[in-house]
Every structure is written in structure tokens, then in C-alpha cells.
Amino acid sequence: MNGEFEFPDFEEYIHGEFNKQYAVRVNERVHDRAMSNTKRGELAREIRKIEWKAAFGDARGEAEQIDHEIETLEDEKDDLDAKIRELQAEREGVERRLTRLRERRKNVDTSEQKLETIMETLEDDVWDGRPVNTELSSVKKAARLAQVEPDDIIDRLKERTGAPDHAFVRPGESRFKWSPAEAARIKAELDN
Asked: pTM to 2 decimals?
């Protein structure tokens, strides 16, 4: 080695074999407290760090400090990566729920459109003089879509059209007969 000293690796040094021992007197209570406040071997490690720094200077101590900071930052990065994965999983759950709700909303829109189409057809039937009542399959279908009773659909139609009550009864239930001529006459009155 030509009298040149080679730096040992710090970790190898800290955990390596030792053949030199210091005889240093310290206050017993301070020593006991230091031992109780540290994990097994930690106090010896700290003493070896001091010896290392005295032997090789601050440059090696700085390298060790940088290595420690790198370790700390890598741990922080790992923690952040775990949080990101957790948040990503949570976001994906929200995205799935959002997709399901949008699909439900679309179905609601479709149901509302179907209901409106049936209601318009029933209005046309009223104004064409055809009696519309709770027994008609289109009234029952509208009631299912609106999640109401058929009588509620008839009430809505009465409100929307303004036609007389006898336009919404089964044939023979009223002494008045709903006809195309009467429907045209009443519609003309309502339009004026």
C-alpha cells in the first residue's frame, strides 16, 4: 500500500471488527441515562462516528450526512408513492361511481323522454275525440314510467289539456259522449 491509508467504508467500519478500546471516565449517571435513552449499540455507533470524523475529517462526515438525507428523502418518496397509490385507488372508485350515476341519469332522461312521448300521444288522442281512461295500456305504461297510479296520469292529462272530465272516462260511464266533433269544438274554445 506504499504507506498510503485507504478509507474504509463507513458502514463496514461501524459494524466491523474492533481491536482498540478506549478507557474514558464518564459520569456514571450520565452514562446510565445515555444507555437508557438509546437502543442497544446506538451509543457505541455514535462514539464510532465521532472517531471516524476525527480520523477522516468532515468530508467523510458530510458524505455520511448526505447519505442519511438521501435515505430520509427516499423514505419520504416511498410514503408519498404509497399515498398516491391510495389516492389513485380512491379516485378510481369515485370514477366508477360517477360512471354508474351518469348511466342512471341517462336512463332517467330516457324514461322521462318516453313518458313525455306517451303523454303527448295521449293528449293527441284526447283532441282526436278518443276517450282516454285508466284501462288503456298507454296510460298504464305512463304510470309505470312515472312511478304513479294511472289515475295520476289522467289528472296530469286533464291539467295539460283542459278537456272536460267525460273525455277521461270509460265508454258508458258518463252521460256525455266524447267525440271528435266535441273535442274539436272544445279545443277551439280553449285556443281562443
From this structure: 0.47
